[in-house]
Design a protein that fits this description.
Helix content: under 10%
Distance between the termini: 82 Å
Largest sheet: 27 strands, mixed, barrel
Number of helices: 3
CATH class of the domain at 2-200: Mainly Beta
Shape: elongated
CATH topology of the domain at 2-200: lipopolysaccharide transport protein A fold
Radius of gyration: 37 Å
CATH superfamily of the domain at 2-200: Lipopolysaccharide (LPS) transport protein A like domain
Structural class: mainly beta
Strand content: over 45%
Number of strands: 46
Low-confidence stretches: 1-76
Mean pLDDT: 83
Length: 775
């Protein structure tokens, strides 16, 4: 006897909900199956392959995300719950113990969903057979397609034929057949794997790359796919064979294993190979170990460690190995480096951190191509935040200079540095108030030891005048105390700075601006804005008895024309009275473009109130002229330039810095020019005059290229030449880079070692990356 057979073209089980539920209940009786309630009969869309090529069954549009199943997910899902299903038609053959469901069959158990055109369950063997467009949606988002499947143990075990799989990260896999074990192991035969999209014009064309293997094992618990007798094909052509090959499952965010090696040849290393190993220690930490073997140096090993905590993180990059410098036949010495940092939140207000950066020498970092920095800074700090009103920080710092001309004994270390400020939200006397205070101690093995305590109060109040003009009243007060003494020798440049000193300064200013705005109709609006500021305060003089630790760097531009104290730090105070003047003009267009410029200068009333270095632009009563011009009338063109000219000869340049960008669709052109006078605090002190230019381009959807360079007009030689070209699509990346620097070692007047780099990067997405480097 059969129940639920068709009568008059109608499925009885489908037409009479009670009978359908009865048949499903009979199927469930003693079989570990459960009938779906009537509300569970809402149909879900079927997943249909787009064509029948081996990898096409798992293909999808690039913008579409993989299906993740229609069952409920989360901690409330019972993985051992009975299987529930719906279908258009259900038959039950009592004599043979078969339950047959046809027509848009959908069965699910926990988070695992099965769909097919026909579903048969044998009560005698406990085997469920699915035929016709079989789709199995896994809890992790993987989708399996098959022509036919025999499953048992709630879909966890079984055999599938004509398998196609849609994996994470756009990866797909196809096989003649597959055997499932425990829902976590898939053993496949005659496998093809790739993450490349098929050609839409000719889906039968081989993908850009694919892995073919006699058999493969997908282990979901270990999150790895392992192949036997594997061949990697490029555009259908065999390129590489290996009897054994393994890579992480695309769904794995991280997995332990060897990464692709880096090969290369350099002047200082000779031929070398680097074989990184990635160790996923646990869910919150990992370690990359990168041993390097070269022909001219002893082995070197690099380490990269990362650790996440509930309240912060630690990252560290280190290396150690034998190193003989430029003399390949010389004595090997142990060398290395460590770059580490940590950040931790203590509570909602406080956080702490550290930076540890040390290296054996500059040449070691350049030779092994580790991150190079001119000065390495190590510090430990704690800082607190209380809304936008209060801030506090305490830190200690140690510096390491890597240039051969650096005198290590004269490089300072800071112990400690304390700073706090307070900026109340409410107005004080109708204006904005900020109060700060700080202390630092600077020590050297040879040179000056300085301790300083400092405080600053600033107040400003803006007001709008009766004519629409803007008045701003400013007050700034500084109080500083010093103790300085020489270590083994007095301060070379400031022999009178030893001992205890104190200094105070107060600056008051009135800033007036009057914007004249004209509506230009369809052409936007035009603005002319004169600005005048009067600043006064006590004369400060040369300040030779005060140590100078933070005010050495100084550059006069339009950016600090109206600053009350134009020194960068606190150790040098600007005094006396002066007038700052500027005229600004702007044309704002309706399309968002703008042409804007400013020209201005400053005039001091006496000669002894301010003593910057010669050539700074402020060494005379009448300062140099400063100007700025920005031209950006359209979104695809912009240029901005800053100029300083001589106070007595306005056409004589003192500083020029300009850069421009032009975007022509996928191509962007850039150019720049820099002219800078000699700066006494830089070694060597010389005039810099450089030009630079470059372009970047996107060619189609996948190609990109770029070239740039700098040329020193004063030295009549290049400074930097670099270029790159690359291709990247959904599954493959290849790029090449060339960098050549012409910087010289000041001691030897020779180009720095490892100044030329050629890098080739080939990446097979979801498989690995290969690098080749030459120096």
């Amino acid at each position: 006897m059969r129940d639920g057979t068709r009568r008059g073209g109608m499925t009885l089980g489908a037409a009479v909900p009670g009978l359908r539920l009865l048949a499903m209940a009979a199927l469930a009786a003693g079989l570990g199956l459960a009938a779906a309630p009537a509300r569970a009969q809402v149909e879900a869309p079927m997943v249909t392959p787009r064509d029948s090529s081996p990898l096409t069954g798992a293909s999808r549009p690039r913008s579409q995300t993989p299906l993740t199943g229609f069952a409920a997910s989360g901690p409330g899902v019972d993985p051992n719950a009975p299987v529930t299903f719906t279908a258009d038609e259900v038959e039950y053959d009592r004599a043979r113990g078969l339950v047959i469901a046809r027509g848009r069959v959908e069965a699910w158990q926990g988070e695992r969903v099965l769909r097919a055109e026909e579903f048969t369950y044998d009560r005698n063997t406990g085997i469920a057979t699915a035929r016709g467009n079989v789709q199995l949606l896994e809890p992790d988002g993987q989708v399996l397609f098959a022509d036919e499947a025999e499953l048992k143990d709630r879909f966890r075990d079984g055999v599938l034929t004509g398998v196609r799989a849609l994996l994470a990260a756009n990866a797909r896999m196809a096989a003649n057949g597959a055997r499932r074990t425990g829902g976590t192991i898939n053993e496949l035969s005659r496998v093809v794997y790739s993450s490349c999209d098929l050609c839409p014009e000719d889906p039968t064309r081989p993908p850009l790359w694919q892995v073919e293997a006699r058999r493969a094992t997908q282990d979901k618990e270990r999150q790895r796919i392992t192949y036997r007798d594997a061949t990697i094909r490029l555009a259908g052509v065999p390129a590489f064979y290996t009897p054994y090959f393994s890579h992480p499952d695309p769904s794995a965010p991280r997995a332990s294993g060897f990464l692709f090696p880096t090969l290369g040849i350099t002047r200082f290393l000779g031929a070398f190979v680097e074989t990184p190993y990635f160790w996923a220690i646990d869910g919150t930490s990992d370690l990359t170990i990168s041993p390097m073997f070269s022909a001219r140096q002893y082995p070197n090993v690099g380490f990269e460690y990362r650790k996440l905590f509930n309240s912060g993180e630690i990252q560290a990059d280190a290396s150690i190995g034998g190193f003989n410098g430029t003399d390949v036949d010389g004595k090997q010495e142990l060398a290395g480096h460590i770059f580490a940092k940590g950040r931790f939140s203590i509570d909602e207000n406080w956080r702490v951190g550290f930076d540890l950066n040390r290296a054996s020498n500059e040449l070691y970092l350049r030779t092994f191509r580790y991150e190079y920095r001119r000065v390495l800074t190590s510090q430990i700090y704690a800082e607190g935040f209380w809304g936008t009103e209060r801030y506090a920080r305490i830190d200690s710092r140690v510096y390491q200079g890597l240039r051969s001309t650096d005198n290590i004994s004269q490089i300072p270390y800071v112990l400690p540095n304390l700073y706090t400020d307070y900026a109340p939200r409410s107005r004080v006397l109708g204006g904005n108030l900020t109060v700060d205070a700080g202390y630092f101690g600077i020590y050297r093995d040879i040179g000056t030891m300085t301790q300083r305590i400092a405080s600053r109060v600033t107040w400003n109040r803006p007001e709008i005048g009766p004519l629409g003009d803007l008045w701003t009243f400013k007050v700034q007060g500084d109080a500083l105390g010093y103790y300085a003494r020489g270590q083994q020798e007095p301060p070379v440049n400031l022999p009178d700075a030893n001992g205890t000193r104190s200094v105070g300064n107060i600056r008051a200013a009135v800033d007036w601006r009057m914007p004249f705005v004209r509506d230009a109709g369809d052409w936007g609006s035009q603005t002319i804005e004169p600005r005048v500021q009067f600043v006064t305060g006590p004369r400060m003089g040369p300040q030779r008895r005060i140590p100078n630790e933070d005010s050495i760097d100084f550059e006069f531009t339009d950016a600090n024309l109206f600053a009350l104290n134009r020194f960068t730090g606190r150790d040098r105070q600007e005094g006396g009275s002066r007038v700052d003047m500027a005229l600004r003009g702007a044309w704002d267009f309706r399309n968002g473009g703008q042409v804007e410029g400013l020209v201005g200068r400053s005039y001091r009333f006496d000669d002894n109130s301010f003593n910057p270095y010669p050539g700074s632009g402020l060494e005379h009563r009448a300062s140099d002229y400063v100007a700025r011009l920005r031209v950006a009338p359209v979104s695809w063109f912009e240029t901005i330039g800053r100029v300083r000219t001589d106070s007595e000869r306005p056409l004589e340049r003192r500083l020029v810095d300009t850069v421009g960008n032009l975007s022509l669709g996928p191509v962007t052109l850039s150019a720049g020019y820099l002219y800078s006078p000699p700066l006494p605090y830089l070694v060597p002190s010389r005039t810099r005059e450089e030009v630079g230019a470059g372009f970047t381009a996107r060619i189609g959807d996948y190609w990109r290229a770029g070239v740039s360079g700098k040329y020193d007009l004063g030295l009549d030689r290049p400074v930097l030449i670099q270029g790159a070209v690359g291709y990247e699509d959904e599954c493959f990346i290849i790029e090449g880079r060339f960098v050549k620097r012409f910087a010289q070692d000041l001691a030897t007047q020779q180009l720095y070692p490892a100044n030329t780099v050629v890098l080739i990067h080939i990446g097979f997405k979801t498989l690995g990356d290969y690098f080749f480097r030459a120096i």
